[in-house]
Amino acid sequence: MLHYQVIKLGFDSDLYVKTGLVDVYARRGDVGSARLTFERMPEKSLVSLTTMLTCYAKHWELKEARSLFDGMVKKDVVCWNVMIDGYAQHGMPNEALLGALESGRWLHSYVDNNDIQVNVRLATALIDMYNKCGSLEDARLVFDKISDKDVVGWNSMILGYALHGLSQVALELFNEMLEA
């Protein structure tokens, strides 16, 4: 009825009103109507994008939320928090660290591009960050480049494998550590 009144009174082209309608549908759990209203908006503001993002995140449609989030040109702290909270609330802690992984990769790239010396401590911090973000491949690449590995570096990589259920790989690496 509310949507009908908006159309009848000629407010259906108002961005603020349309965003409010998306929010109303989302709060009622009518994701389909929220999506349809959102998609029919000729222009979308950061607020309307975040409203739809919130709708998806609250109603277990995290794939759609991530797709919308990735397509956003401008992102503020609110939309980052919506995505992180959506993943965390739905039992996906590794995905909740999406901002940390992107930031960590940027930092790692900065180190590489500016010829900053990567010592064992810095490499271990990178390994730990990649492990916590679920990117074991990146962690292993950093680990393999360490020429003078210490026990902390070895343990960080072993722990990464163990925490992600790769106990056999962790044990193999532990044996490599003992041999080294």
TrEMBL record:
Domain of life of the native organism: Eukaryota
Listed PANTHER family: PENTATRICOPEPTIDE REPEAT-CONTAINING PROTEIN, PENTATRICOPEPTIDE REPEAT-CONTAINING PROTEIN ELI1, CHLOROPLASTIC
InterPro entries, alphabetized: PPR_At4g14850-like_plant (IPR046960), PPR_rpt (IPR002885), TPR-like_helical_dom_sf (IPR011990)
Single GO term (MF): RNA binding
A family per Pfam: PPR
Name of the protein: Pentatricopeptide repeat-containing protein ELI1
Record keywords, A-Z: Repeat
PPR repeats (start-end): 45-79, 150-180
GO annotation, biological process: RNA modification
